[in-house]
């Protein structure tokens, strides 16, 4: 049973330290002791603690030792420092506290503060961190206090506070029905937070405690209770009833109406408590005239505890009176050591006496006293040596900031190297522990990441930071409060519920709309293998060569009714007609529109989506519903995709699919991103609700940026979309869209889509009027060039006819309005028995100087029927069902007795015929009309395409290779140990 005891005033620091914004509080590359504490207490650090951590103390002057908390030095007591030598008996005493949740503001839908709440538990970690440094000036010390005043303090007790709270259930706050979306707020919404119980009627929250030092004289006690209605009954007034008891006696019977919270302090007499037996406190809920529920948070009890040692120590916090008075504490053992500190006023009390077992001293009436009547042995639960890198230097410069968890060190280094070599970026790679330590003093809180990013943006050398990549998943339950939490590791933290990574790239402190000032993306890896997949996908994508799928854009429309499907189509169609079909994109828009509201043809819709993505698309857009956090009936599992090497940017304009911190399961967008060489290279989705108007407007501006502003880095695309709707951010739905739509992916990754025309012609993209012409025949070659880039108003194409590799004639032609695919013809005559070829060159005059010329030309051999080995079978693109293949060709028309001749067949698994599996089949002195070759097929695999071609050598003259043809098989076998595995 979780039970927390603490004193009347919860302090986050004994010296009331506010968080400094000076990140040079710690010296880079210098040793410090880092101390982690989890409870409020006096702690003692000895020379042995230094030695055990690996610090040599011989050169340490103890007078220079300093202790820091939250960026500021705190005063301590250092026993034995006066001689300037750190002796074995010397020690440091300091008061440390756990990290509390503290005062939290709670907002309504318009971000007005509704109420504040003093949270006991911190959302991220209850651990506080203290630092010990040395050298330089002398450190701060507690003041010795030896004042004496015979006037006694007016009470023989102080109030002790007990917290009864168990964080088990999370709610996003009040919601009055399925159409109430107010709680989709990234700020803490009214009623939001962790609770002990989700109560239904007649359920009780109960706990017990002992009070052995209870004052024997009855005094007032208090109990504070906090609870929030989970639902309401608009037909019943005061439908929520909470009965609070102490040891079975009702001390409050409270009612609340609608969503009015229970946030009440109740006064009762300490006579209801027992100092000798266990006490029970309870709160019981009753729903009035309906099946209601209540989120119950905590009970907080204050009772009078007399000044008496228990287990040889006393902790006591007093009132606000600053006068000095005499205090008496019973249970004192004079023969034991005594440490007597007022940690609020930074005093070490040195003047004390005793009368028998009563300790007598003078102290401040507002003090917080920590008195230990034994050898102080309490240690931080973790002591380690720590050095931090120089991340706060303003001489640094960064275009690209890579924030990662140490688990992903290898992958972060690989991505850093890629960005430096591929983009010539100035890259800063920062590990989360370093960021916590420098920019939030060792405390685990996502504000550390924002502090760091803002510091880099404001202080690093120009040009300013452009991209922030977060490598690592976060969690909405980093303390594993809920029983069903699986994914609790907060590798790179998240903020808000629903979460918003855009917070980290926005530096307008105090604003509620987090429009990115630097482009932000997250690679939501939970394991090193996932991180490796994501980084490998990035690098492979950016090394892609031009391909036809670059011109494809897939638009998927869902909806559960005909009206919804029609309305979604009306919203999507203008994107196609305005941005995809016309110049400059001139793309191929593939529409997959759901028209199956009766669910009769769902299979075709689902299969079409999978098949189209498998075939390759530059951008995949989805507009529809996602109640199950996927694309409704269209796609539930991205792992069914086989789009190897053809990874799209996904715009998922629907609810929930962009979550990257769900503690129970992995969400749709994450699944897209964690597939090796398939899935998506980037996924834009929301962690919350997908508002139709603002979401479609946001999508419009993203596509506009791609089409007309030639935005290619995917972080810039989403950043542009957000900034374009900022004008309307007073609307909660627009603000939600700006904050909650985020990028799973590297924000600096560039769409493969070129910013200029990108021409291409391959060895298979032509057709001859006769594949095997004869001498004096007129032949026409038709060329089918491609443009994988933007629209070209015209491009010049040159044809060169060559005889024995010498150009005999040339012709230029201009292809106009070149969008994607077109055709152009060249006619010529073969006037003699020679080796002919045609060379075709795109953009021969270099009208587009920045266009890649590596794939702009082909050379086509023209095999004369008279001298060629003419292919007959297998037919091009055929399917074989055997493990061998027979090639048949018509022999050259020559007299064998007069020439030396041979025919050749090449078979390979690559179109360039350069793999280790290539087979070359040769026959000399052939006879008859045809020649046949039969051979086994290498690497039997239905996923492999097999290529083949023929040639003839006559008197050492080659007829040239014929056009490449292909086939594939329907089955195959792959050895796995001693087994044979059938592949279907």
Keywords:
984 residues, mainly beta, Jelly Rolls, 6 domains, 6-stranded antiparallel β-sheet, 6-stranded mixed β-sheet, 60 strands, disordered C terminus
Architecture overview:
The longest helix has 19 residues. The chain folds into six domains: 144 residues, no CATH class; 135 residues, Jelly Rolls (Sandwich), CATH 2.60.120; 115 residues; 215 residues, Rossmann fold (3-Layer(aba) Sandwich); 103 residues, Immunoglobulins (Immunoglobulin-like, Sandwich), CATH 2.60.40; 107 residues, Immunoglobulin-like. The protein has 984 residues and is mainly beta. Helix 3 packs across helix 4. The two termini are 57 Å apart. 14% of the residues lie in helices and 35% in strands. The strands form 16 sheets. Strands 1, 12, 15, 17, 20 and 22 form a six-stranded antiparallel beta sheet that branches. Strands 36-35-37-38-39-40 form a six-stranded mixed beta sheet, with helices on both faces. Strands 51, 53, 54, 56, 57 and 58 form a six-stranded mixed beta sheet that branches. It is elongated.
């Amino acid at each position: 049973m979780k039970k927390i005891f603490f004193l009347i005033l919860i302090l986050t620091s004994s010296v009331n330290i506010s968080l400094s914004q000076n990140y040079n509080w710690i010296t880079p590359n210098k040793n410090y002791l880092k101390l982690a504490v989890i409870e409020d207490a006096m702690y003692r650090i000895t020379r042995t603690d230094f030695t055990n951590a690996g610090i040599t103390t011989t050169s340490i002057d103890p007078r220079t030792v300093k202790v820091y908390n939250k960026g500021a030095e705190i005063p301590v007591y250092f026993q034995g420092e006066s001689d300037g030598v750190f002796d074995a008996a010397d020690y440091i005493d300091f008061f440390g506290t756990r990290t509390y949740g503290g005062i939290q503001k709670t907002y309504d839908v318009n971000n007005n503060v509704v109420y504040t709440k003093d949270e006991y538990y911190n959302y991220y970690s209850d651990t506080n961190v203290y630092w010990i440094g040395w050298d330089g000036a002398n450190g701060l010390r507690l003041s010795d206090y030896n004042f004496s005043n015979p006037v006694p303090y007016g009470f023989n007790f102080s109030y002790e506070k007990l917290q009864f709270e168990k964080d088990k259930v999370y709610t996003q706050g009040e919601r009055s029905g399925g159409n109430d979306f107010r709680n989709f707020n990234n700020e803490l919404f009214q009623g939001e937070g962790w609770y002990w119980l989700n109560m239904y009627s007649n359920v009780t929250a109960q706990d017990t405690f002992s009070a052995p030092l209870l004052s024997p004289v009855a005094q007032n006690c208090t109990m504070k209770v906090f609870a929030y209605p989970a639902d309401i009954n608009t037909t019943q007034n005061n439908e929520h009833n909470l009965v609070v008891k102490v040891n079975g006696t009702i001390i409050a019977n409270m009612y609340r109406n609608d969503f009015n919270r229970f946030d009440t302090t109740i006064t009762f007499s300490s006579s209801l408590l027992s100092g000798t037996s266990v006490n029970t406190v309870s709160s019981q809920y009753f729903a009035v005239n309906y099946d209601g529920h209540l989120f119950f948070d905590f009970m907080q009890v204050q009772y009078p505890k007399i000044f008496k040692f228990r287990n040889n120590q006393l902790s006591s916090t007093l009132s606000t009176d600053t006068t000095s008075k005499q205090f008496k504490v019973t249970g004192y053992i004079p023969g034991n050591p005594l440490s007597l500190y007022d940690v609020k006023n930074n005093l070490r009390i040195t003047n004390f006496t005793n009368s028998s077992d009563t300790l007598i001293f003078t102290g401040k009436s507002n003090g917080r006293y920590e008195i230990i009547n034994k050898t102080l042995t309490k240690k931080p639960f973790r002591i380690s040596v720590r050095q931090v890198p120089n991340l706060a230097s303003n001489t640094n410069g960064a275009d690209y900031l890579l924030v990662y968890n140490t688990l992903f060190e290898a992958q972060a280094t690989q991505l850093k190297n890629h960005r430096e070599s591929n983009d010539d970026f100035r890259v800063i790679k920062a590990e989360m522990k370093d960021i916590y330590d420098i920019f939030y003093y060792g405390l685990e809180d996502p504000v550390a990441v924002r502090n760091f990013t803002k510091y880099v943006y404001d202080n690093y050398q120009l040009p300013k930071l452009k991209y922030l990549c977060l490598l690592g998943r976060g969690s909405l339950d980093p303390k594993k409060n809920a029983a069903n939490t699986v994914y609790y590791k907060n590798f790179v933290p998240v903020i808000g519920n629903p979460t918003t990574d855009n917070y980290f790239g926005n530096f307008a402190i105090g604003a509620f709309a987090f429009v990115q000032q630097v482009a932000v993306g997250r690679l939501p890896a939970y394991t090193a293998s996932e991180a490796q997949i994501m980084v490998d996908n990035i690098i492979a994508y950016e090394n892609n060569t031009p391909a036809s799928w670059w011109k494809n854009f897939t638009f998927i429309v869902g909806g559960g009714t005909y009206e919804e499907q029609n309305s979604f189509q009306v919203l999507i169609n203008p994107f196609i007609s305005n941005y995809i079909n016309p110049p400059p994109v001139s793309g191929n828009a593939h529409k997959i529109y759901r028209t199956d509201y009766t669910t009769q043809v769902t299979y075709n819709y689902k299969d079409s989506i999978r098949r189209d993505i498998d075939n390759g698309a530059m951008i995949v857009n989805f507009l529809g519903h996602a109640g199950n956090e996927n694309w409704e009936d269209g796609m539930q599992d991205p792992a069914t995709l086989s789009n190897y090497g053809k990874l799209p940017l996904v715009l998922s304009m629907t609810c929930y699919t962009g979550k990257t911190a769900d503690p129970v399961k992995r969400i749709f967008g994450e699944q897209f991103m964690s597939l090796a060489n398939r899935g998506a290279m980037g996924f834009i989705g929301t962690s919350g609700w997908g508002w139709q108007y603002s979401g479609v407007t946001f999508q419009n501006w993203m596509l506009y940026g791609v089409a007309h502003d030639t935005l290619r880095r995917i972080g810039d695309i989403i950043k542009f979309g957000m900034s374009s709707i900022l004008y309307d951010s007073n609307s909660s739905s627009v603000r939600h869209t700006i904050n909650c739509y985020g990028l799973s992916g590297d924000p600096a990754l560039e769409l493969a889509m070129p910013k200029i025309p990108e021409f291409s012609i391959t060895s298979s993209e032509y057709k001859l009027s006769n594949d095997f012409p004869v001498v004096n025949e007129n032949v026409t070659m038709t060329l089918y060039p491609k443009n994988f880039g933007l629209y070209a108003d015209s491009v010049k194409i040159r044809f060169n006819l060559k005889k024995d590799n010498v150009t005999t004639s040339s012709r230029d032609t201009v292809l106009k309005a070149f969008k994607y695919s077109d055709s152009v013809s060249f006619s010529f005559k073969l006037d003699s028995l020679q080796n002919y070829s045609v060379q075709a060159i795109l953009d021969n005059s270099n009208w587009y100087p920045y266009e890649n010329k590596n794939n702009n030309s082909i050379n086509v051999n023209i095999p004369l029927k008279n001298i060629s080995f003419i292919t007959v079978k297998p037919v091009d693109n055929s399917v074989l069902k055997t493990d061998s293949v027979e090639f048949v060709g018509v022999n050259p028309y020559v007299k064998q007795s007069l020439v030396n001749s041979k025919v050749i067949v090449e078979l390979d698994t690559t179109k360039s015929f350069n793999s280790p599996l290539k087979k070359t089949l040769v026959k000399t002195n052939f006879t008859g009309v045809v020649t046949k070759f039969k051979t086994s097929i290498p690497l039997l695999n239905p996923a492999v395409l097999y290529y083949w071609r023929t040639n003839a050598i006559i008197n050492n003259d080659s007829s040239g290779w014929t056009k490449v043809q292909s086939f594939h098989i329907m089955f195959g076998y792959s050895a796995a140990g001693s087994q044979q595995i059938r592949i279907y």
